[in-house]
Amino acid sequence: MAVTAPWLALGSFASGVGALYLLSRLRRHWGQPGAKWFVATIITMAVWCFTYGTALLVYDRTIRLALEIVCWVCLSWIGFFFVAFALGYTGRTAVLESRWFQSTALLPAAASALALTNPLHSFLWTGFAVDPTFGAAGATYALRPLGSLVVLMTTLLVGFGTLLVFDTVVSYGPLYRREAIAVGLSPLPPGFALLAWAGGIGPSPSLNFATLLFLPHIALDAYAFVRSDMFEFHPATRRAGERAAIDDIATPVAIVDVAGRLVNLNPAAEAMLDVEKRAALTDPLDDLLVGDELSLGTDRSRLGVENGERRREYKVQWTPLRDERNTHLGYTVVFQDVTDELRRERRLEVLNRFLRHNVRNETVVIQARAELLAAELDGELGEHAAAIDRAIGRLAESGEKARTLSNMGADGAVESVPLRDRVADVVEALEADYDGGVTVEISDDLTLQTRPVLLSVLVRNLVENALEHGDAPVAVTATVSGAGDEILLTVEDGGPGIPEHELAVLDRGRETDLDHGRGVGLWLVRWTATTLAVDLDFDTSDGTTVTVRLPDDRSAVPSRASAE
């Protein structure tokens, strides 16, 4: 039996060496959330193991008592360090840095002070004696109530920290589920050994096997944190992201239960409702809204909310909250402020109505009088009148294009459109106003599933731009792409080409005072193409060639384009 003693001490030393090895492997993660507290936990564990291993070899009562006191100091702090690690690792930094949690450090500090001074007052234990057992320097003493309370405090803290890590990691998905189970199981062996020793249970009450059973504890932690890099992808990131997703955004967000009662809301929602979060929790959300009524779970395109003397308009979206068992728990309610957007729409409606009626009517009057003057006057005055007539005509045409822009998207019906017939109708209407000719080379069997009105607008403005700025003739052709999934509609002229700065404006999507286009025709082309979800290619190397890539949605495969 004497041979047992060295192995019991060596087991404690092995646990200490394992703790140091774990620290060395986690060195690169020491800057991660909770890592410094994990380091403090492992260091405390290592000191405890080395100290108790040494104590098992020392029979001098004074030295043996001093070593036992050091073990009690480690016992006092290890639970606190582990809970701090669990709070930091799982992203609960607000709790970790709170005053009430920091004040809990007084408990292990007081326990350590009592342990260091126990020979003077015997508050933690009494009757210390060296008890040679199995060839080791065991120790017997009777725990006082405060001593048992210290052991219980450490056990509860470690258990609480374990639950934090276990619950958080498991609830955040299967990525580290097995590792989380390992973390949850790791404190059990030394924890049971500690409780057995404190309760006087076991083959030898004078020996504490907790340090020996730190070996499986360290092995499980190494599996979790070294093998799988749980410090590399930690729950603190997700918890911070969840907090930022609600608290840090400017959009009002409220969380309600199935009855519509507030469970959480972000600062933007507090400002919108003009309430304080603590006072508003558990109140029905609809009761806090001053203005329009909000029905539970019903999306609304517009909801008026009054705050003081101001009224804002919001678009409301409800998203059901469900757990892993698909149980309906409540809703996430997002309020999107559309007040400014609605104001802009109303201003545009007024401006559009003014342009469509007032300006158009006055333009008609001016153009009619200019035509009369041009017919009656001769020479230079007649030329001036004709120039006014042409300018007014262009202005009226621009107004019609602006009207087309304002109505874009209203014609949303998708139909089967024979491409050649549609292009031919557009070209025939344009040739009546222009001297230049247009050739159309499109096969009769090319059809599209598209919005015919918008397709006509697109073709008209491409051909019109070619007639106005290019050299006749203008060619409109259509072919099937090599892959057979697109119809390539091409409008080509021999003019000087669209200026690069106008193409740059289209690519950028906005104009400036110094960089803008000559009209709205190209904007109509771009926006119509965007609405139809088709691609445009401009080639200005030799004249202008515009290629529209139309998706080939025909039910039958067409033959390749042939000349008409």
From TrEMBL:
EC number: 2.7.13.3
Xref: InterPro entries: 2C_sensor_his_kinase, HATPase_C_sf, HATPase_dom, His_kinase_dom, HisKA_7TM, PAS, PAS-like_dom_sf
Designated name of the protein: histidine kinase
Species of the source: Haloarcula nitratireducens
PROSITE patterns in the cross-refs: HIS_KIN
Keywords: ATP-binding, Kinase, Membrane, Nucleotide-binding, Transferase, Transmembrane, Transmembrane helix
Residue ranges of the TM segments: 35-58, 65-87, 99-116, 149-169, 181-201
Limits of the Histidine kinase domain: 354-554
The keyword Transit peptide is assigned to this record: no
Enzyme class: transferase
Catalytic activity entry: ATP + protein L-histidine = ADP + protein N-phospho-L-histidine
Record keyword Transferase present: yes
